[in-house]
Design goal:
This protein has 328 residues and is an alpha/beta fold. Helices cover 43% and strands 19% of the residues. Bound molecules: ligand NAX. Residues 6-145 form the Lactate/malate dehydrogenase N-terminal domain.
């Protein structure tokens, strides 16, 4: 059997952690032939709860689970890690301004980036789930100068999957027949789910893109505000669907995207589509040989351009704010 892959999950005692860990241990993320060693990082007050989750993981007797460590020390939790899922973050509290939120998260993602830099395996791949995910990824990458920036990514796969499902419902086709959607920009309400290159049952989604009222007043806001709708319905934020998206993101990053299709991920911009270099921005991406590649050469219509620019402007404002706070 191959050597186990070390997978660190932060915020392991939280609700996404609980939905995520069992699936990683079952092989859903890295495939049925790859054993995993789980390394759970929590804050001291939540270590006991994480240990409870570790006990349950043990009780599943997963054949692929080679071991579990629980820690409140980032240096140990990231030691030798190959895949790091940064889920734990500071939520926005009552009366918290954006600057306060960015600063509080800088206090988490800066040191975690540094610990990854100093202790992780050479091939480490990082997915930031904790919000504000794009800018938290930017902060972590800035603290890991020895790790290629392209190894830091932010999760927009849940938005992508939500968009796939909305289109499948609207078109009355199975979700597997919807391809080539793209989420652009920030994982926030400004994100832009783009259907202009999408295919439904093998044909361009012209009928959907021609219906501008549905597109701009229903589809885009439904996808962008789905998180709030889930909170309203469930009384708690998305957890299983977020965990599933994290599994999908890492699975495709490591094992590749299907031929002829693409997905969406927040990756460090190299200036593609006019997005300023260095921003962690969601793009349409493919993955091969363990690397994300932005899908290039797509024609961007005026409607899309305006919506992409608005979300990118928000990312730039977040970067300016964290620069002013000395976090990057
Ligand atoms: P929970 O509050 O249930 O769990 C968060 C856990 O993180 C807690 O157990 C907490 O003790 C831990 N934590 C806090 N600071 C930590 C630190 N410095 N080191 C290690 N652990 C730490 O939140 P949950 O519902 O699991 O959501 C986690 C994050 O995912 C939130 O920031 C949330 O906003 C974000 N989300 C991101 C999504 C995305 O698509 N990118 C979608 C789902 C989700 O909203």
């Amino acid at each position: 059997m191959t050597a186990p892959v070390n997978v660190t999950v932060t915020g392991a005692a939280g609700q996404i952690g609980y939905a995520l860990l069992f699936r990683i241990a079952s092989g859903a993320m890295l495939g049925p032939d790859t054993p995993v060693r789980l390394k759970l990082l929590e804050i001291p007050q939540a270590v006991k709860a994480a240990e409870g989750t570790a006990m349950e993981l043990d009780d599943c007797a997963f054949p692929l689970l080679a071991g579990i460590d629980v820690d409140d020390d980032a240096a140990r939790a990231f030691d030798g890690t190959n895949v790091a899922l940064l889920v734990g973050a500071r939520p926005r509290g009552p009366g918290m301004e954006r600057g306060d939120l960015l600063e509080a998260n800088g206090g988490i993602f800066g040191p975690q980036g540094r610990a990854i830099n100093d202790h992780a395996a050479d091939d480490v791949r990082v997915l930031v789930v904790g919000n504000p995910a794009n800018t938290n990824a930017l902060i972590a990458a800035a603290h890991a100068p020895d790790v290629p920036a392209a190894r830091f990514t932010a999760m927009t796969r849940l938005d992508h999957n939500r968009a796939l499902s909305q289109v499948a419902h609207k078109a009355g086709v199975p979700v597997a027949q919807v391809r080539r959607l793209a989420i652009w920009g920030n994982h926030s309400a400004t994100q832009y789910p783009d259907l202009f290159h999408a295919e439904v049952a093998g044909a361009p989604a012209d009928a959907l893109t021609a219906d501008t009222a549905w597109l701009t007043q229903e589809f885009v806001p439904t996808v962008a505000k789905r998180g709030a709708a889930i909170i309203d319905a469930r009384g708690a934020s998305s957890a299983a669907s977020a965990a599933n998206a994290a599994i999908d993101h890492v699975h495709d990053w490591v094992l590749g995207t299907p031929e002829g299709d693409w997905t969406s991920a927040g990756v460090v911009s190299r200036g593609e589509y006019g997005v300023p270099e260095g921003l962690v921005c969601s793009f349409p991406v493919t993955s091969s040989d363990g690397e994300w590649h932005v899908v290039e050469g797509l024609e961007i219509d005026d409607l899309s351009r305006g919506l992409i620019d608005a979300s990118v402007a928000e990312l730039e404002a977040e970067r300016t704010a964290v620069r002013e706070l000395g976090l990057v």
